Amino acid sequence: MKPTRRALLGASALAPLALPAIAQPQWPERTVRVIVPWPPGGSTDVLCRLLCEQMQARLGQSFVVENRPGAGGNIGADAVSKSAPDGYTMGPMTLTVWAIGQFLYERLPYNPDRDFQPISMHWELPNVFVVPSQYVPARNVREFVEWAKARRQGVSYGSPGVGTTPHLSGALFAARQNVDAQHVPFRGAAQTIPAMLSGDVNFAIDNLASYVPVIQEGRMRALAVTSAERHPALPDVPTMREAGMEDFVVTSWCAMSFPAGVARPIVDRANAAMKAIAEDQSVKERFLRTGAQAVWSTPEGVLERARRERPLWQEMVRISGARLE
């Protein structure tokens, strides 16, 4: 059948519209800026740099880290949220951004459901319930509760600061076990650990990554981990559930994100690269050496998880009494 003049004209009119899609370059064409909302050297920074190294190798462009610490991660997170949605700014957004901050702060400069385009889960690590071996005789959680309740002056627990997952975990534990526990905030595990080893602080439920060396040395005793399953770095340490603490699955996690509005093909390409990285055995082993586990999810899975966990974190913030400007 011979095409009509109208059909030919219609096809010629549509052809220019198709050209941009055919000629569209594949992301990334240039350097990608990666804003880390935490200082250099911390677990989020170290694991992000490891990811960037892998992204660069797989996608052929530089991924350059820019640290923007301050305000509990809010300064860096806000910088990501307000960046151009062109795929050339991204950042590791921790659990605080996705699920805790809205209950902890009077005001946030961003809305996690509206202002970010998640790419994928990045890493996950549990907290570990630790006591200083020299000063606390308890060898499991039950014995610790009995020991703590017998102390007329109560006990104290350390954390990296007000509103952090170690602070909220300690407050939840004390409330559920009816233990008189005083929170002692520090600037990080580098200060908390010496205070515990000198006997000034009795316990912590802190990020596992910082404590593996002192646990292996025997100076700290790990009573439980807060993940749903035992952690590969400490296979002999029970979970909180195994230790008799039901409904105490508390893990820190991080998801990489673009600002909202980035085109879906870019998101999907970044997500596919992160999936390949998370499945790489050598990468898994490097993450485990830091105490973390490399993980992957769909973009939608990030927000689904945040929304599922928010009620628990809201309860924990309420119990702790934490509130920040």
Briefly summarize what is shown.
This is Tripartite tricarboxylate transporter substrate binding protein. With 325 residues, the protein is of the alpha/beta class.
Structure description:
The protein has 325 residues and is an alpha/beta fold. The protein has 2 domains: 32-124 and 253-320, Bordetella uptake gene, domain 1 (D-Maltodextrin-Binding Protein, domain 2, 3-Layer(aba) Sandwich); 126-225, D-Maltodextrin-Binding Protein, domain 2, CATH 3.40.190. It has 11 helices and 10 strands. It has helices spanning 5-23, 43-59, 74-81, 95-104, 141-150, 165-177, 189-197, 212-216, 264-279, 281-289, 299-320, and strands at residues 32-36, 63-67, 89-94, 116-132, 155-159, 181-185, 203-207, 220-225, 251-259, 293-294. Strands 1, 2, 3, 4, 5, 6, 7, 8, 9 and 10 form a 10-stranded mixed sheet that branches. The chain is globular and about 70 Å long.
SSE blueprint:
Elements: H1 5-23, E1 32-36, H2 43-59, E2 63-67, H3 74-81, E3 89-94, H4 95-104, E4 116-132, H5 141-150, E5 155-159, H6 165-177, E6 181-185, H7 189-197, E7 203-207, H8 212-216, E8 220-225, E9 251-259, H9 264-279, H10 281-289, E10 293-294, H11 299-320
Parallel strand pairs: 1-2, 1-3, 5-6, 5-7
Antiparallel strand pairs: 3-9, 4-7, 4-8, 4-9, 4-10
Helix pairs in contact: 2-9, 4-11, 6-11
